[in-house]
Specification:
Low-confidence stretches: 1-38
Number of strands: 51
Number of domains: 1
Strand content: over 45%
Number of helices: 3
CATH class: Mainly Beta
Mean pLDDT: 91
Structural class: mainly beta
CATH superfamily: TonB-dependent receptor, beta-barrel domain
């Protein structure tokens, strides 16, 4: 079956390429030059292979968005990419305003617990961000975003199995210029963004970017009338660029982000249950089914919210030692501090209420040695080092989970743990033109990662269970190594068309059960690996008005890390809730991806993407299923892997008599049925849905000022984005929803 599907996919890819109906960048825009519309599509350069290359020449499945493209997406945060990239699922992480849940081609990691590494690597200016906490980037000073699909096992950071998302911020320029933008909208949305760059001398320049973003919440507690799921973010970045000689340059940056948000509330979808010693299971809440009214309750007081402070400094040095050799150094230090209350059960009861506070800091250093003979051979050799420390304090409150003859028994668990990770790697990658039009690329990376983990947890039971209170602690250490090669062969048929075949291996290191509360739960899990084989085609029409990409791929994904929820002693007076992490088995993932952009006439542009994904378990080793075969249906579907995704967008510009311009645009994005948890609970799924957006822009004749207005989720579609599944604890099954219809208007002045 897989062979037949791949054969069909390859045939479709070649047909699409021959027809020249392709696309690439939803953010690629036909920029206007004063009064004249560009007659061809703009070329975009990317750094997907750590050197600057044309998007249409690089043998990698990559989607790139310029600043203008992000504005057309109406994306203010990184999750605004949802729907615009084939086989990408990127949403706000469950129950947390500052984390991101990213899956590419069915591979990711939704759990924000610090003992898990991300499945999709997140980078800002080539600096790796180790946590999915703090990765919900506000796009306030972005030059370009690149999304690399498939394992990045040779050239990138700590290695990743799913892919990488790269944010490239604006560098200081050699002229004084900038922009200021203010935005207002419903839900009391108010934003201010600012960017300025200016030369300090003929050898130095500086830039400053800042943003203040506020919005009221769209989830309401009907009893207290307090709003939740809001946003209150302050962010700034300063950059200094030095170029003392033609052979040496340096860019230094410092960035700061602070968030002070209310809780992020979801909706309970299953009856919430208390365990009573005398009465057995007691239902506390039976949630209504049907349409959601965007109302939820919480047991937390109004003073409990979610705070984050995230800052860092980085320096990139580039030295042309000879005409052929470039040495590049990327150094970075980052700190992330969070203090978040999360109501996992999303109700007025204390069943799964937690506090998570961490103070993560990391240092990374990368050295690259790049060679280019200015002819047929390029190479990149490098060394990479990362040290991360993540001490954290957590508390779990569950006064409504256990009762004795109807009287609640108080419960508190405190956790103090510390994870230290050291990652070391050496890598090499070459690009060799064998003959006219035939280019071979190959690379290899050796990675060694060591983790030290200390955990201490104390349990405090109220009467009559006080005797069961106690403290448990353990220490663990382990290390893992991996060799991850990559290979591609590219054939350039002409300046406008090329095809490639690639094979890449990805690796994500193992770890420890960060929810172990007893000796029997102490365990480590092994690394996961993936091999992905891909055939791609990129083409442009001769007149430069149509271009696009298509790819077909097969991934062999092994030992993937899955957190499950179970009760190990059903029927006992005090249930033992455990959350083991399993190297659950194997997945086979097949897919087809297509992107296209076309200029029609002088002022109309169409952009499209479509993807098909077949992600299925070949093996899922779950001890619960061994004990109870009826639970086999828990793993029929791979989470966050919809079978079909598609998007169609169009813009049309009207040249007005004054020389000004009016642009109207809109898009439709479709996503088929999506499961939102590893355990396939019926309510933790989202059926197929379509979102629509519209915007309009007025640019002055001199292009110095702009007015923009838009609406997102035009049809007010109700849709789920993520879920919490802790069904062994009070039957918690909580879902989170995307924002209802919302509008905005902004004014921008360029100087």
């Amino acid at each position: 079956m897989i062979r037949n599907r791949l054969s069909l996919a390859i045939g479709l890819t070649l047909f699409i390429g021959a027809a020249h109906v392709q696309a690439q960048d939803a953010g690629e825009t036909a920029k206007t030059e004063k009064k004249d519309e560009a007659a061809t599509l703009d070329s975009i350069e990317v750094t997907a292979r750590r050197r600057t290359e044309s998007l249409q020449k690089v043998p990698v499945a990559v989607t790139a968005f310029t600043e203008d493209g992000l504005r057309e997406l109406q994306a203010s945060n990184i999750d605004g990419l949802q729907g615009a990239v084939p086989n990408l699922n990127i949403v706000q992480g469950r129950g947390s305003s500052n984390s991101v849940n990213a899956f590419i081609r069915g591979i990711g990691q939704p759990d924000a617990l610090q003992t898990f590494d991300p499945g999709v690597g997140m980078y800002v200016d080539d600096v790796y961000y180790s946590r999915i906490n703090g990765a919900m980037f506000s796009l306030f000073d972005v030059s370009r975003v690149e999304v690399l699909r498939g394992p990045q096992g040779t050239l990138y950071g700590k290695n990743s199995t799913g892919g990488a998302i790269k944010v490239i911020t604006k560098d200081p320029g050699d002229a004084t210029e900038g922009a200021v933008e203010i935005t207002a909208g419903d839900y009391d949305r108010a934003e201010g963004r600012f960017f300025i760059t200016t030369p300090m001398s003929d050898k130095a320049s500086i830039s400053l970017a800042a943003a203040k973003i506020t919005r009221d919440g769209y989830i309401n507690d009907p009893v207290t009338n307090k709003d939740y799921n809001d946003e209150d973010t302050e962010a700034a970045r300063i950059k200094l660029a030095l170029h003392p000689s033609d052979d040496f340059s340096a860019v230094f940056s410092v960035d700061y982000t602070h968030q002070d948000n209310a809780l992020t509330l979801g909706r309970p979808t299953a009856p919430l249950v208390r365990t009573d010693f005398a009465l057995g299971a007691v239902t506390l809440l039976t949630p209504p089914l049907g349409d959601y009214n965007y109302q939820s309750r919480t047991s937390f007081g109004s003073d409990k919210g979610q705070q984050m402070t995230h800052w860092g400094a980085a320096g990139t040095l580039s030295w042309n030692v000879t005409p052929e050799w470039l040495i590049k150094s990327i150094s970075s230090y980052r700190e992330l501090e969070t203090a978040s209350f999360i109501d996992i059960d999303a109700s007025q009861f204390e069943l799964g209420d937690v506090f998570v506070g961490l103070n993560q800091h990391q240092f990374s250093q990368e050295l690259q040695f790049q060679y280019d003979n200015d002819s047929n051979f390029q190479a990149t050799y490098g060394l990479y080092y990362l040290q991360e420390k993540v001490p954290s304090h957590q508390e779990a409150y569950a006064d409504d989970l256990i009762s004795f003859f109807g009287a609640p028994v108080s419960f508190l668990r405190t956790i103090d743990d510390d994870l230290q990770t050291t990652s070391e790697a050496a890598f090499a990658h070459i690009n060799w033109e064998l003959s006219q039009g035939w280019i071979l690329s190959a690379g290899i990376r050796y990675t060694r990662e060591t983790k030290d983990y200390d955990r201490s947890t104390s349990t405090f039971w109220g009467p009559p269970l006080g005797a069961f209170s106690g403290t448990f602690a353990f220490t663990a250490k382990d290390s893992w190594t991996a060799i991850t090669p990559s290979f591609s062969l590219k054939k350039e048929f002409s300046d406008k068309t090329m095809a490639y075949f690639s094979a890449n291996r990805g690796f994500k290191s193992g770890g420890f059960n960060g929810r172990a509360n007893s000796p029997g739960e102490v365990s480590s899990f092994d690394p996961e690996f993936v091999w992905t084989y891909e055939l791609g085609l990129k083409t442009q029409s001769e007149d430069g008005r149509f271009q696009g990409n298509a790819a077909v791929f097969h991934s062999d994904y092994r030992d993937f890390q899955a957190r499950v929820s179970e009760v190990t002693n059903p029927g006992a007076p005090i249930p033992n809730f455990t959350f083991p992490v399993l190297n659950a088995g194997k997945l086979a993932i097949n897919g087809i991806e297509f992107e296209g952009v076309a200029l029609v006439g002088d002022n109309t542009r169409f952009t499209a993407q479509a993807a098909w994904l077949d992600a299925s378990y070949e093996e899922f080793i779950d001890p619960r299923v061994v004990l109870n075969p009826a639970l086999a249906s828990l793993h029929e579907h791979v989470p966050f892997s919809p079978e079909f995704t598609a998007r169609l967008a169009a813009t049309h510009s009207f040249n007005l008599a004054s020389g000004s311009m009016l642009t109207l645009g809109g898009d439709l994005s479709y996503r088929s049925e999506t499961w939102l948890s590893v355990d396939n609970r019926p309510e933790l799924r989202q059926g197929a849905y379509t979102l629509a957006g519209l915007f309009g822009t007025y640019d002055s004749a001199d292009r110095n000022w702009q007015i923009r207005a838009g609406v997102r989720n035009l049809t007010n579609t109700e849709y789920k984005t993520d879920a919490q599944e802790f069904s062994s604890v009070g039957n918690i099954q909580t879902v989170y929803y995307g924002m209802p219809r919302n509008w905005y208007a902004s004014f921008r002045y360029n100087f």
